[in-house]
Amino acid sequence: MDQARINTIRAIYKQHFKEEPASIVVAPGRINLIGEHTDYSEGFVLPVAIDRDVAILFSPRQDGFVAVYSVDFDEFYQTQLSHFEKQKTSWIDYLQGIIWALSDDGYPLKGWQGVVSGNIPIGAGLSSSAALEIAIGKTFILSSNISIDPTNLALIALKAERDWIGLNVGIMDQLISADAKTNHAMLLDCKTLNYEFVPIPENVSFIIMDTTTRRELTHSAYNTRHKEIQEVTRLLNVNSLREASQSDLDAMQTVIPEILYKRAKHVISENSRVLQFVHAMRNHDLLSMGKLINESHASLRDDYEVSSDALNLIVDLANNQSCCFGARLMGAGFGGCALALVSQGEELGFIQEVHSAYQDEAGIAPCLFIVKSATGVHTHNLKKNN
Ligand code: GLA
């Protein structure tokens, strides 16, 4: 995180709390190379943390209160840890969700005061909410002097997201924000929660292509997909889709409604693409990586039906560029961002071409930018006068 941003947030902290903050916590957003909508059926995912994050500058408090100012929402919220009314405002809901999940798991919490500020586009599929949850969780770990390992921190954030916020997500976003490694993707097995790090090959750049479209009902559409997966899992008589193969699915095709057949087909084929992609990554085979990414997009578009006209357009425009290995929608879908894999050194020309072609055809300006890999949530003390 650059010093200018730290200084800006620090000045805001001093203005609100009339003192210097003690520490800073930084939790990254993420891209997902491949393995979309597979985490909540115990599948494989391959996220990379990025150099966009949520930062909290804070000092511990001893009076059982938490007091936070959000720069992005220009809103201040203060509450006792032992008692609060549920709030609908998204960022406060996440703060309350983490307090609730930690307390419910029996952790003795102490308060803090802080300023939170992020630079991850919100609702774009880059996990701004998971980064917020992990940053808040880590701040409580430090202020309360408790010890929680990255997997358990991610599980606490997941509990907050599912049982407090009400969104039936998988664990990918929380775990990559909690324990990412620079220059590596995380191959995560969502059944065992084991993960290994796969080096990112040289010569490839990751470009975010934000369509700048957002869909209001993303949350309910996401929960609908979750329900459909539960239903087809039940029909196939397995514990999770991870246990089913394409031939198991085909054998049941006549008794499974077509829509559920397509949902399961996506998940089963996507899990296999993740493993093929990792193999290609280890062999520095950028062409195969690109081909798998394109197949992933087609499957999300046609079988999982979470794409949109804007996403399909920007993915097609990206693939028109010869320096693009492949592109696909990313995150929950329905709007937001796509990811393109582009030959290193060709990024700026690619961004210009896709930007102007998208603007011409869609009539709105997209937002394209390069992302670099980053480390998981981390902290450092702030020196008195830097
Ligand atoms: C959102 C969820 C993740 C995952 C993706 C789709 O980002 O938070 O758990 O399901 O959508 O792959």
Automatic annotation (TrEMBL):
<dbReference type="InterPro" id="IPR006204">
    <property type="entry name" value="GHMP_kinase_N_dom"/>
</dbReference>
<dbReference type="InterPro" id="IPR019539">
    <property type="entry name" value="GalKase_N"/>
</dbReference>
<dbReference type="InterPro" id="IPR019741">
    <property type="entry name" value="Galactokinase_CS"/>
</dbReference>
<dbReference type="InterPro" id="IPR014721">
    <property type="entry name" value="Ribsml_uS5_D2-typ_fold_subgr"/>
</dbReference>
<keyword id="KW-0119">Carbohydrate metabolism</keyword>
<dbReference type="GO" id="GO:0046872">
    <property type="term" value="F:metal ion binding"/>
</dbReference>
<keyword id="KW-0460">Magnesium</keyword>
<keyword id="KW-0479">Metal-binding</keyword>
<dbReference type="InterPro" id="IPR013750">
    <property type="entry name" value="GHMP_kinase_C_dom"/>
</dbReference>
<dbReference type="GO" id="GO:0004335">
    <property type="term" value="F:galactokinase activity"/>
</dbReference>
<dbReference type="Pfam" id="PF00288">
    <property type="entry name" value="GHMP_kinases_N"/>
</dbReference>
<dbReference type="Pfam" id="PF08544">
    <property type="entry name" value="GHMP_kinases_C"/>
</dbReference>
<dbReference type="InterPro" id="IPR006206">
    <property type="entry name" value="Mevalonate/galactokinase"/>
</dbReference>
<dbReference type="GO" id="GO:0005524">
    <property type="term" value="F:ATP binding"/>
</dbReference>
<dbReference type="InterPro" id="IPR000705">
    <property type="entry name" value="Galactokinase"/>
</dbReference>
<dbReference type="Pfam" id="PF10509">
    <property type="entry name" value="GalKase_gal_bdg"/>
</dbReference>
<keyword id="KW-0963">Cytoplasm</keyword>
<keyword id="KW-0547">Nucleotide-binding</keyword>
<keyword id="KW-0067">ATP-binding</keyword>
<dbReference type="InterPro" id="IPR020568">
    <property type="entry name" value="Ribosomal_Su5_D2-typ_SF"/>
</dbReference>
<dbReference type="InterPro" id="IPR006203">
    <property type="entry name" value="GHMP_knse_ATP-bd_CS"/>
</dbReference>
<keyword id="KW-0299">Galactose metabolism</keyword>
<comment type="similarity">
    <text>Belongs to the GHMP kinase family. GalK subfamily.</text>
</comment>
<dbReference type="InterPro" id="IPR036554">
    <property type="entry name" value="GHMP_kinase_C_sf"/>
</dbReference>
<keyword id="KW-0808">Transferase</keyword>
<keyword id="KW-0418">Kinase</keyword>
<feature type="domain" description="GHMP kinase N-terminal">
    <location>
        <begin position="94"/>
        <end position="177"/>
    </location>
</feature>
<dbReference type="GO" id="GO:0005829">
    <property type="term" value="C:cytosol"/>
</dbReference>
<dbReference type="GO" id="GO:0006012">
    <property type="term" value="P:galactose metabolic process"/>
</dbReference>
<feature type="domain" description="Galactokinase N-terminal">
    <location>
        <begin position="13"/>
        <end position="60"/>
    </location>
</feature>
<feature type="domain" description="GHMP kinase C-terminal">
    <location>
        <begin position="278"/>
        <end position="353"/>
    </location>
</feature>
<protein>
    <recommendedName>
        <fullName>Galactokinase</fullName>
        <ecNumber>2.7.1.6</ecNumber>
    </recommendedName>
</protein>
